[in-house]
## 1
Amino acid sequence: MPKTLYATLKALPGQRETLRGLLTALAKDVRAEPGCERFKVYTLASDPDLFHVEETYRDDAAFAAHMATEHGKVFNQTITPLVEGGGSEVVFLDAVI
């Protein structure tokens, strides 16, 4: 069963472009993971400092492998001083249809 989630990140003042660049680089790495089915980054139309990332992995094992990647760990450490709350807010989803 696929593992789907979304994450939101709010850039601190003056950090939007830095965060955008980090997310762009992360997307390249995550999309190359064998279990990644979707990794899409958006900004909120009414607030470009708020980023929304939609992710789907083949299954729980693929998600676990994603969480163990070095590029993911480096990203999460790097964004600490750049985003509100020091990290992303993650919401897991279950498909309805």
## 2
Amino acid sequence: MTEFTIWGFLVDFSLMSGLILLGTILRAKVKFLQALFLPASIIGGFIGLALGPFGADLLPFSDQFSSYPGLLIAFIFAAIPIGAAKVQIREIIHRVREMWSYSMLLTTLMWGGGALFGLVVINQVFQDLPSGFGIILGAGFVGGHGTAAAIGDGFAQYGWDEAMTLGMTSATIGLLVAVIGGLILVKRGTQKGHTQFISSFKDLPTELRTGLIPASKRVHMGTETISPSAIDPLVLHISIMFFVVGAAYWLTERLGELIPVISIPLLSVAFVVGLIFQFIMRKTKADSYIDQRVMDRIGGSATDYLVVSGIASINLTVVLDYAVPLILLFVFGIIWAYLMFRFLGPNIFRNYWFEKSLFGWGWSTGTVAMGLALLRIVDPELKSKTIDDYALAYIGMVPVEVAIITFAPILAFSGLPWVTPIVLLITAAIIVVVHKRAGVWGRRVLDSKQE
């Protein structure tokens, strides 16, 4: 296909859907893939990369195939505030202070550490690289394929088109690090007695390995909040999403005309428009007709398609051109992530440090879904309340993530690349100081048997 048409769009999503289905089947049947806990979208993405335009070129993707991640990430961020339950700030502060602090440290240190390592080491050795190269680590590891798409799109506005491929590569490597490294940590943790809910890696339920949930353990993915005689409940939620993202796109275009020197990511505007929409729904008492689980499923669906398209559209030629600096960046990222797991978690969490830190390892190198998969290994019934705490803590983290994604590319290409790591690392230092003064830091030891 030489141009984008509605039929090209259909073919692209048909192929991506087929890859996801194939990944689901392989995950359910192949023991090796079960042992790695790879999501179906990751498996499908690798198959798409092998058979797609940058591999064997057997799959007829359209020329617009690589542009989908930039749109899909807007749906993911728009879905975050819509339908969310009202939460008191006081509840967030008192209940999830530890989780918020830990998550903020992982975020600021991974983004800031990668940016600083890039400037101090990589850019000094490879002087022809853009000054924002180190940001690719945080975009892929902490952010995942969605954030990598947003950062790549942001850098592309300033002429660095290869950033999208590098970001997707970072996110893909990050997922592999999350899976393989996480499984190693689980095995070591069970051997040393750090886990609270399992004593052996062999105690895992079947559905965690195959991905197939037996009938007795299935739950509803949502609730009908409106009569199908008026409008299909799923169409109601999908229409909200398209309206919000469409409004965000229109607003982004207008802002681009008013402030042409600054490129504002669509995902940032989509999140803000989502917040405004949710505020209006709450004020008009209409928010009870929006089911958060359905909105989460729409966002999750966008994530699966984003991962498939992101991996399958990786330009291997670009990756090879940047191979050496990428390897240096990833080696630093892996060591940095382990140091945070090893020293931050035990000193911040007073209860279930291993379970909560393992979840942090999963999402700070891969995705929240991968963090949850690792958590379910060591906490099958989620008794540690890690997910509940993270869901609340994430409310306070989103503005920080949006600010990083929005301003990091702008600063990098405005001659101020040092601002990003300095601000982020200072923020991390402030969090540590506050914890020390609160008498929390350092209470934990790396031996759960002493609890």
